Amino acid sequence: MANKVTIKDQFIEVAEVLRGVGRDDLAEFVDGRVAILDKKASSKKATAHQEENAVLKGEIVAFLAEGGRYRAGELAGKFEVTPSRMTALLSQLAKAGEIDREVEKKVAYFKATA
């Protein structure tokens, strides 16, 4: 899957085009907008739910490090969260390379990385 093109990426490209046609004044204006976006992104604080998910992810990784492989539903019961939430967390961890995902007969199993 290709990376999503953000508004910041588009602004940067527009600034490059403007510089290419000699409109440095407009390019500086666009650079200012990019700086505003950067400042806005850096000041965002994680929500309580995001912080809770971060803690839960750490607990999941630690649990899987003890050994074994588990389905999302099994882990959801163990950590007392909904299966859909557990699936989302496991997918994020697998995408980040913190755990391994194996599919066997159309069933996904999760385990610690080797």
Describe this structure in words.
This protein is an alpha+beta fold and 114 residues long. It folds into 2 domains: 7-42; 48-112, Winged helix-like DNA-binding domain superfamily/Winged helix DNA-binding domain (Arc Repressor Mutant, subunit A). The chain has helices at residues 7-20, 24-42, 48-65, 72-79, 83-95, and strands at 69-70, 99-104, 107-112. Helix 1 (7-20) runs antiparallel to helix 2 and helix 4 packs across helix 5. The mean pLDDT is 90.
Reading side by side through the largest sheet, how are the strands ordered? 1-3-2
Helix percent reads: 55-70%
Order of helices and strands: HHHEHHEE
The CATH architecture designation of the largest domain is Orthogonal Bundle
Strands, helices and their partners?
Layout: H1 7-20, H2 24-42, H3 48-65, E1 69-70, H4 72-79, H5 83-95, E2 99-104, E3 107-112
Antiparallel strand pairs: 1-3, 2-3
Helix pairs in contact: 1-2, 4-5
